[in-house]
Specification:
The protein has 408 residues and is an alpha/beta fold. It is built from 18 helices and 14 strands. The strands form 2 sheets. It has an 8-stranded mixed sheet with strand order 9-10-8-11-7-12-13-14, with helices on both faces. A 6-stranded mixed sheet has the order 1-3-2-4-5-6, with helices on both faces. Helix 5 links the parallel strand 4 and strand 5. The longest helix has 20 residues. It is globular and about 70 Å long.
C-alpha cells in the first residue's frame, strides 16, 4: 500500500482531469486553476474565442507531469498566489522549462500593481486577473498567440510527438517483439524512436539486428547535458527508418533511473520525433510511473494463461489505483484462432474485468525468424495472420491518437 500511495502522489491522480470548451480552434489552451476557481468560471467566457480551452483543476504539480495534456497545450493560463514565494518559484521554474514551446499566462485573485509588476518580471507572457471578463481572457489569449508565433518563427518546436508505453505482465511474453514490429510499421510514414528502458533484460536492439555503440546508460550519465544532439549520438537507425536507443550491455541497477531523468528524456525525445515508444520493465517504480504518466497510451501485454490473466488483472489494478486506467489498452498475445478464424476473448475479459483491445495470433516460426534477422514480419512471411493483426493494431492506435488530438 505504501508503494501505491507514492505512485499515486507522483502520477497526479485527478477526479476530473480537464473539461473541454467544446469549441474547435487553432490555439489549444489549458486553464490550470484551483477547484474553487474552476467552479466559478463562466462557460460563456470560453466560447467564440478561436481557441480550444480546457479547465484543469488539479494544480501545477499534477499538470506538469501530465504528458498527454502538456503535449496538447499551446498556451497555459496558470493560477498563482503572487504573495507566495514558493508559488512564484514554481511558476518561474515551470515557465522556463516549457518556455521554448508553451507560453505561460499568470492568473491571480486581487491583483495589485505591485503583484502585477512582480509577475511580469518573471518569464510569463501576460498577467490575467481572477475573476476575468471575456474581453480580458481574449486579450491574454492574443498576447499568448503572439508569443507562440515568435517562438515558432524562432525555430522552437511547434508540436510535440506522442508517447506509447509497452509493458508486459510477465517476462518473455512478447512485449519487445510487439514494440519493435510496431516501430517498423509506423516508421513508414512517421519519425519513430523506440527507447528500451528494460535495463536488465532489454532486447530491442537485438531483435532489430542492431549493434549499438552507446545505450540508455550513456544518456543517464549525461544528466543535465542531455539534449537533442546528445540523443542523436546515442540512437541507432534501423533499415525500416525507426531509431532505437538500446538497453545497457551490462546488468544495470533499476534505481539508476529517476523520474527527473524520464521527464527530461521524454521532453527532448518528443520534440524531435513524431512517436516515442517506451519498452518498459514489468515493474512499478517511481520512474516507470512517471513514464506511464507521460505516455498517451499504455499497451499492457499478456497472454491466455492463468498466470497471464492473473498478473494482467494485478497490473490493471495498479494502473486504475493511480488514475491511469483510461490509458491502458490490453494486448492478448499468442492466440490460436477458433472456428471461422475468430478469437474467443470472453473468458479472458471476464477474468480481467476489462476489455481486450487487441488480439495477436500465435506464429512462433515467423516471429522467431523476424527477431533473429532483425526484419519485419512481412519480410519473413507475406500476409501472415500475426502481421495482419499488428497492422490492424497500428492503424487503430494511430486513429485513436488522432482522435485524442495527437500532433504527430
Amino acid at each position: 500500500m505504501a508503494l501505491l500511495a507514492r505512485l499515486t502522489a507522483l502520477a497526479g491522480r485527478d477526479k476530473a482531469e480537464a473539461s473541454p470548451s467544446g469549441e474547435a480552434g487553432d490555439l489549444r489552451v489549458t486553464l490550470v486553476v484551483t477547484p474553487a476557481t474552476a467552479a466559478t468560471i463562466d462557460p460563456s467566457h470560453l466560447a467564440g474565442l478561436g481557441a480550444d480551452i480546457r479547465v484543469f483543476d488539479g494544480g501545477l504539480e499534477k499538470f506538469s507531469v501530465n504528458g498527454p495534456l502538456l503535449r496538447r497545450t499551446d498556451l497555459v493560463v496558470l493560477e498563482i498566489d503572487p504573495g507566495s514565494a514558493n508559488q512564484l518559484a514554481a511558476l518561474e521554474e515551470f515557465a522556463l522549462s516549457v518556455g521554448a514551446r508553451i507560453p505561460v499566462v499568470a492568473a491571480a485573485h486581487d491583483l495589485t500593481i505591485t503583484a502585477t509588476r512582480r509577475l511580469m518580471r518573471s518569464s510569463v507572457a501576460d498577467v490575467l486577473p481572477i475573476p476575468f471578463s471575456r474581453e480580458e481572457l481574449a486579450q491574454a489569449l492574443e498576447t499568448g498567440r503572439d508569443r507562440l508565433g515568435q517562438l515558432r518563427t524562432g525555430g522552437g518546436p511547434a508540436r510535440s510527438g506522442n508517447v506509447i508505453a509497452f509493458q508486459g505482465v510477465l517476462g518473455g511474453i512478447g512485449t519487445t517483439m510487439i514494440a519493435t514490429q510496431l516501430a517498423q510499421i509506423w516508421a513508414a510514414d512517421k519519425k519513430v524512436l523506440l527507447i528500451d528502458l528494460d535495463l536488465q533484460r532489454g532486447n530491442a536492439a537485438l531483435y532489430m539486428n542492431l549493434k549499438p555503440r552507446l545505450s540508455i546508460a550513456d544518456l543517464i550519465e549525461a544528466d543535465d547535458r542531455l539534449d537533442a544532439e546528445f540523443l542523436k549520438m546515442v540512437l541507432e537507425r534501423h533499415q525500416s527508418g525507426a531509431s532505437v536507443i538500446s538497453s545497457p550491455n551490462d546488468m544495470t541497477a533499476m534505481d539508476v533511473v529517476t523520474p527527473e531523468f524520464i521527464d527530461r528524456l521524454l521532453d527532448v525525445a518528443t520534440q524531435n520525433f513524431d512517436l516515442v515508444l517506451l519498452d518498459l520493465p514489468g515493474i512499478w517504480m517511481d520512474w516507470t510511473a512517471m513514464a506511464i504518466q507521460k505516455a498517451d497510451l499504455l499497451l499492457l501485454v499478456t497472454h491466455m494463461t492463468v498466470s497471464g490473466v492473473q498478473q494482467g488483472r494485478r497490473q490493471l489494478d495498479v494502473a486504475e489505483a493511480n488514475g491511469l486506467g483510461d490509458r491502458v489498452r490490453v494486448v492478448m498475445n499468442r492466440l490460436i484462432p477458433g472456428m471461422f478464424g475468430k478469437y474467443d476473448l470472453s473468458e479472458a475479459e471476464s477474468a480481467l474485468r476489462s476489455r481486450v483491445h487487441f488480439a495477436l495470433a500465435n506464429d512462433f516460426p515467423t516471429v522467431s525468424a523476424a527477431q533473429d534477422e532483425g526484419r519485419s514480419l512481412g519480410q519473413i512471411k507475406m500476409k501472415s495472420r500475426i502481421e495482419k493483426d499488428l497492422r490492424i493494431m497500428a492503424a487503430q492506435i494511430g486513429d485513436e491518437l488522432v482522435s485524442m488530438g495527437a500532433t504527430a
